[in-house]
Amino acid sequence: MPTSPPGAPERRPRLTPAVADARRAVRESLADLAAPQREPRDGPLVLVALSGGPDSLALAAATAFEAPRLGLRAGAVIIDHGLQGDSTAVADRAASAARGLGLDPVEVRRVDVGEQGGPEAAARTARYAALDTAAREHGAAAVLLGHSRDDQAETVLLGLARGSGTASLAGMAAVVGHYRRPLLGVRRAALAAACADQGLEPWHDPHNDDEAFARVRVRSSILPLLEDQLDRGVVDALARTAEIAREDSEALEHMVEEVAEELVELAEGGCALPVAWLAANPAALRHRLIRLVAHAEFGVSLSRVQTLEIGRLAVEWHGQGSVHVPGIRVEREGPRIVFRATATNEH
């Protein structure tokens, strides 16, 4: 942080639009945890997942400012993935910045990143495991993540490319369990400006310039091309699409969960759904109910192809035999579609 000349009174950084946007986003995200009548030292703890980059550093600064005003304590957790030669120095620098902002507790957690699922997936798995452990050990009410509106747009584009449907369009949720993403409505450029306005010097991850990663290619090439050829508001449009899709998806999921409580019947060795309901309702509800039963009762996540095959037992019945997916055998028995557990290698 910038300091005043010796002997001069300390001056606060001016409240710029970028700083105000970040603070407002954090304040709104944490409003339900607020206990302003309580001394902050006795309030719930929120932890910032801090990498030292512009987004998470702006989040840390905004949280350090807003949390005490909401009667909350605020700390930071820095995950050192050990993937770069200077990772320890980068993590220690981020921890120093967090302490300079007044966050407490501040800790660095070093993780061992495996190779399962590729480097990005492995790093993400190790990072979230470490954040979960930190939240549990400190009794944190929330862990704050620094994903921006640009990150949301990139997530939607990547999901569309993979063809995973509404789940892709819905992007990242603002709240999942104890995780919160306060900055999903704030652009990346505004967060960088918030750091500059407060005299904070973020770290720039070289991986963010490595086009071996699909997300970097989306960020550096595809989104700029879309903005140039279509509209400068593409990022905001994609983020709005995610918000609308998430609202629709959550509403449908809620409906299907209520329906499942009424329709799912016990069957020998498993459970069953009525053919009449599956055949009479739209595909969106039918497929969601099938996926819900497979996941809730058997812990199996069905692919699109598997879901369609099971659905055809109700809507395109020609006497076909059972459908086998890993861990489940599904077959039509009169007016019911019956799901039964099998060995995972049974076909």
Question: What does this molecule look like?
Answer:
With 347 residues, the protein is α/β, with parallel strands linked by helices. Helix content is 50%, strand content 14%. It has 2 domains: 17-242, Rossmann fold (3-Layer(aba) Sandwich); 264-341, Uridine Diphospho-n-acetylenolpyruvylglucosamine Reductase, domain 3 (2-Layer Sandwich), CATH 3.30.465.60. The chain has helices spanning 17-30, 54-69, 87-100, 119-138, 149-162, 166-169, 188-197, 214-229, 234-263, 275-280, 283-298, 304-315; strands at 45-49, 73-80, 106-110, 142-144, 175-176, 179-180, 265-267, 270-274, 323-325, 328-333, 336-341. 37% of the residues are buried. Strands 3-2-1-4-6-5 form a 6-stranded mixed β-sheet, sandwiched between helices. The model is unreliable at 1-11 (pLDDT under 50).
How many structural domains? 2
Q: Using only CA atoms, what is the Rg?
A: 24 Å
Q: In what order do the strands lie side by side in the largest sheet?
A: 3-2-1-4-6-5
Question: Class of the largest domain in CATH?
Answer: Alpha Beta
Uncertain spans? 1-11
The main sheet comes to:
6 strands, mixed
Roughly what fraction of the amino acids lie in strands? Answer: 5-15%
In whole angstroms, the N-to-C terminal distance is: 63 Å
Shape by Cα distribution:
elongated
Oligomer: single chain
Helix share bin: 40-55%
User: What is the residue-mean pLDDT, rounded to a whole number?
Assistant: 89
CATH architecture label of the largest domain: 3-Layer(aba) Sandwich
Number of strands: 11
Superfamily at the CATH H level of the largest domain? Answer: HUPs
